[in-house]
Design goal:
Blueprint (H helix, E strand, L loop, with lengths): L10 E6 L4 H16 L8 E6 L5 H15 L1 H4 L2 H9 L1 E5 L8 H7 L5 E6 L6 H10 L7 E5 L7 H14 L5 E3 L7 H12 L12 E9 L8 H5 L2 H19 L8 H13 L9 E6 L8 H4 L10 E6 L11 E6 L6 E8 L17 E7 L3 E9 L8 E9 H4 L1 H5 L4 H11 L8 H21 L4 E3 L7 H8 L11
Parallel strand pairs: 1-2, 1-4, 2-3, 4-5, 5-6, 7-10, 8-15
Antiparallel strand pairs: 7-11, 8-9, 9-10, 11-12, 12-13, 13-14
Helix pairs in contact: 1-2, 1-15, 6-7, 7-16, 10-11, 10-16, 11-16
The structure holds nicotinamide-adenine-dinucleotide.
């Protein structure tokens, strides 16, 4: 079953920060894979733009090295690699000055799609928008892709939205959250709205609770200084976990259309109750024999930034009142594993008696590793042992279900960049959504700052602080094990 590739119209893509880490690891490999898949027209142009002084030839060598490291298999094929490098150009440019902008204006062409990827620090987003506008580059079919973080709090997010709005319409702004580009995340919508099976059960009458876990096994590593100013709440919850929660909790949109979907997501964020301090647990990892603790990595011995957070949330609307959502995310946890688990209620009456045990249906959406969806169902244990019940998974691991070719999914960046070119904003955050998420997040962070209590220590390789386990235990529930 070969995947169907629909070519996109020719475009010029400028990568501001084209020599940076994100460009090397994600953006350039994603573009190369879409190119080799046959998705680009021949006169597509990709232009790196950064402060480094180099010419197009040197930048091509840079791109070749990045691909050899981050897309080695595809980069080993000489012919497509050479054809891809032919599309590449470079401009030395300063976001904060005038140098390089005229050269960029000459290289991009009007009358075609022009996309500008802001892969630079957030303090430069406003400068880039302003200069694109000033040099006539924002006109026509132009669009900008803005990386995270989108603001640090509500006030800064609003200010950034206002700045961008001075130079671009909302329909030209693509705020990227790569979690939304994951195959499984989109499949969540397909499962919910493409089947009659789940939707009637998708409410507080049948769902006991929902768990969202995004666990990383690595620490803050080289990003310590940046991370220490942010913390898990800003870096993960306000954006990625909030987006996942919205997709699970939203009402069916009337159509799969950008504004229809984003309107429904926004309603979820606005329906969130403020979170009482007792429903939040913050943690900070300790060191191990071989690994330094958080404060050492953050180079801040007094740091009170959280590397872990767990929360219990209520979505106060007709569908979800009474069904809690438990969210947790952290670094240096036991495994790198992310999943959403929809835990259904017990059957109203067990005809098999207490010895059959307690069994529940759980729909698990695994985001990483091994993207896939699994439905736990209860069956009779095979054999002569009487009516003993066991839970078995109906596994929809895509790699197995769809065969190896289809399972070679485009990475989230591949899909999202192609959506930018197609002009489809469904999987990108709208300005009001981002602001609503900050409006909900800010009071939680303000409360921590006021209380001045430090985060709880937790061991490297654990499941976070014990208080996070208690957050569920006290409700008679348990977190699922963090495992790949
Ligand atoms: P980086 O520091 O590795 O690269 C920054 C790039 O910006 C370089 O190409 C540099 O030349 C360019 N630059 C800096 N100042 C400039 C100026 N005045 N004018 C023009 N260009 C300038 O950063 P990164 O890790 O690639 O991150 C880029 C953006 O992506 C940031 O907003 C970051 O938060 C976000 N992001 C990065 C990652 C990641 O994995 N690296 C993940 C998610 C989001």
């Amino acid at each position: 079953m070969a995947s169907r590739v629909i070519p996109v119209d020719p475009f010029d893509l400028v990568i501001f920060g084209g020599t940076g880490d994100l460009a090397r690891r994600k953006i350039l490999p994603a573009l190369y894979r879409r190119f080799t898949a046959g998705q680009f027209a021949t006169d597509t142009r990709l232009i790196g733009a950064a402060r480094a002084e180099m010419d197009a030839r040197a930048y091509r060598a840079f791109v070749r090295e990045a691909l050899a490291e981050f897309a080695p298999e595809e980069a080993a094929r000489k012919k497509p690699l050479a054809a891809f490098l032919d599309l590449i150009d470079y401009v030395t440019l300063d976001a904060r000055g005038e140098a390089g902008w005229d050269a960029l204006a000459q290289k991009t062409r009007t009358g075609r799609i022009r996309a500008y990827y802001f892969s630079v620090g957030p303090s430069l987003f406003g400068d880039l928008a302003k200069r694109l506008h000033k040099h006539g580059l924002a006109e026509g079919d132009a669009r900008i892709v803005v990386e995270k973080p989108f603001g640090h709090d509500l006030e800064s997010a609003r200010a950034l939205n206002r700045t961008l709005a001075r130079h671009f319409d909302e329909g030209q702004i693509y705020r990227i959250d790569h979690y939304l580009g994951k195959e499984t995340v989109q499949n969540l919508m397909a499962i919910r709205f493409g089947n009659v099976l789940f939707e009637p059960l998708w409410n507080s009458q049948y769902v006991d609770h929902i768990q969202i876990t995004v666990a990383e096994s690595v620490g803050v590593g080289g990003r310590g200084e940046y991370y220490d100013r942010s913390g898990a709440m800003r870096d993960m919850v306000q954006n990625h976990l909030m987006q996942l929660l919205c997709l699970i909790a939203m009402e069916p949109p009337a159509k799969f259309d950008p504004d229809a979907v984003r309107d429904e997501k926004l309603k979820v964020i606005r329906a969130l109750d403020p979170v009482a301090p007792a429903n939040v647990v913050r943690g900070q990892y300790e060191g191990s024999e071989s690994q330094p603790d958080y404060r050492t990595q953050a180079e801040n011995p007094e740091s009170t930034t959280e590397s872990f957070v767990a929360l219990k949330l209520n979505v106060s609307n007709w569908r979800w009142a009474g069904t809690p959502f438990y969210l947790r995310t952290g670094k240096r946890l036991r495994e790198r594993a992310s999943e959403i688990a929809v835990v259904f209620k017990d059957a109203p009456h067990s005809i098999f008696g207490p010895e059959a045990g307690r069994h529940r249906n759980i729909l698990t959406i695994r985001l990483q590793p091994n993207e896939g969806i699994e439905l736990g169902v209860t069956i009779k244990e095979p054999g002569p042992g009487g009516m003993r019940l066991i839970d078995v998974p109906l596994d929809m691991t895509f790699a197995e279900a769809l065969g190896s070719e289809e399972a070679d999914f485009p990475d989230a960046y591949e899909r999202l960049i192609m959506d930018v070119i197609r002009g489809n904003q469904t999987l990108f955050m709208r300005g009001d959504e981002v602001e609503a998420a900050w409006a909900w997040t800010d009071p939680i962070i303000a409360e921590w700052q006021e209380a001045g209590t430090p985060p709880l220590p937790y061991a490297t390789g654990s499941s976070g602080p014990d208080d996070a386990l208690m957050l569920m235990h006290r409700d008679g529930r348990r977190w699922r094990e963090i495992r790949p």
